[in-house]
What does this fold into?
Amino acid sequence: MNYTSLNRCRSILSICAVVLLLGVDSTKLAYATTIIVDSRATGGFGSPNTGWSDMVLGWTFSGGAERVEIIATGNITIPNTVGPEGITWPVGATIGTNDFFPLEEASVEAGGLVLPRSVGTPIDLIGALMAAFIPENLYSASSFFSRDEDLVSSGENGIASSALFFVGAGPLIFEASEAGRLYFGVNDTYVANNHGQFTTTVNAVPVPSALFLFSSGIFALLGMQLLRKKTHTVAPVTDGIG
It folds into this structure.
């Protein structure tokens, strides 16, 4: 291969590398954030629920098909010591027969969970880490609050109980259906005496197409570097005729 061909190949590879790398959305390759979720952040869901605070913003998705990995650590006191997976506790002295928890609210409203419950009935996931996905059109309104929609005033937007889901300690992979936000909270009721917090880490899961573009750009750069070395080491051959 002569110098003109080598230079032409090197130029083409340079252009390809730049185009491929510029086409990668860096937010879709790698990003992580850590959120502190207070033990009182129930969003006012469940009953009775005194002393609560709003759910905590954890992640913003720019569009559908974006995925994140969620991992949680830490313990809270409710008054039992509980990790992100929560505990199972029976209806009785500390849980009334008409009490229900945030993750149960949608079922209560739909008539699936009938109250009162019998004493001794076990309740799962008490104190567990939970989350809610909120579409962009809801939280972009000036009057959005990250709490139970039953607790906001007329004309304001809140979170529907049906949006809540269990997260636990993870790792949990969540994929957004559209642009929106992920809010985190605790599945507990009557939280006035709660203490502690969960540390929640949210990691972006690279989009396959972004990885392909990025790796293609890297290979193009490597190819360009190899051609540059070859150009520098191959000297023109002369026939010795002066």
Summary: The mean pLDDT is 83.
